[in-house]
């Protein structure tokens, strides 16, 4: 198995720089990082990839079973790390990938030095004493709607997730990304994402961790960022002066600045 | 001029009930009220209409000059009130229409008994000591984007405004409504809306006023609801357990309950 080809791995940036591994979320691919790559490339060796089932990954490598749990996505991350023999990795995960990074770091702690979680949520559904922002019925409705009409669902879902209505091109870009994903694979990834409960995994984190949230995010209310911070001792929560669920596209400079501040490399 | 025909006036509900005049916002028409009409119709005489330039109003009655200021929209409201000889009106305005109601009530105070403002904003652009949620550049970008591609803009803007990504049919409904609006008339209404500054008008309000906001609204941050409440002495601000900019569609029961609680008619 050619992992580089399977996960469409791209390596760019400063060859001798510390490694940032950039991991996209549901319905996206490595293109999601396009606005932060130029600045980060000056100081870091950047490793980008597409999860199997997303972007330009190899569809033949997909299996419903493997990608029905977040551990399957973490396996992609670990195999990319192994293939490139990455060490001292700062894992930067967007949305559901933030939790994938937690799982990967728990499985192979020797490879990871820092975690950056962008708009993470360890559980989308409300629970006793926990507000995830959605009821169980909300999530059932979301998944049923996706399964009955994936393209229509994407066209309405993606702009709502992106927010920033004054810049509709952002929502259109996310819609295009969602629509480019195979509907069957998207269905599995969506179920895995929106039905996940990774709260217990947060306590496994031992590396310095930055949590980036936006002021307003339709996917995760402010309580979620606070929950993640409280669950990871010593972690840092930064609320960006940005809205929506994708600050790396809507506020790339603020996102880059927060990451480089955290890593102590801000120019 | 046949005002009923011009503004596509609909009268429904309890014939001898107190009057609710339901006024839609930008890019919408009276259909916006479809999910609250059945419950409100039990107790109220409901008057619905479409502003000239929206819905099934008469396009021939439109003029760029009149509809380039919120006072022009208030004129529509007042002419509907006059035509139907409405008194003791509770004006229920959504979004920009909340401010239209303020202007109408200041012009003809004898007609209005209460104001209900749903997701209002007296100014969208930040100012010294005021947070509207958008920079001047944001709003310029929004208007330029609208003017260059109205249908594309609508498809991305409407779902972002609606929020509630778990129910994409809501965003689709708003997209359809936006797209059904004449692009030239929409351009004028959008400029009038997003460049408005009606903060000084808030102090003219003398009738009991209910302000309804959602927990999360991409059009207006929480500071805006607080500003409106503070600017209208004795007004009541209710934060609905709802998200997005259109609670009458996304949370119709909570919206109806808040209105009927305020008016003292909740069953």
From TrEMBL, chains A, B:
- Database matches in InterPro entries: AB_hydrolase_1 (IPR000073), AB_hydrolase_fold (IPR029058)
Q: Per its UniProt record, what Pfam families does this chain match?
A: Abhydrolase_6 (PF12697)
Q: Keywords in UniProt for this one?
A: Hydrolase
Which domain of life does the protein's organism represent?
Bacteria
Q: Which Gene3D superfamilies match?
A: alpha/beta hydrolase
Locate the AB hydrolase-1 domain: which residues?
Answer: 20-257
GO terms, molecular function:
hydrolase activity
UniProt xrefs under PANTHER family: ESTERASE-RELATED
Similarity section: Belongs to the AB hydrolase superfamily.
Name-wise, this protein is Hydrolase
Q: What taxonomic lineage is listed for the species of origin?
A: Bacteria, Bacillati, Actinomycetota, Actinomycetes, Kitasatosporales
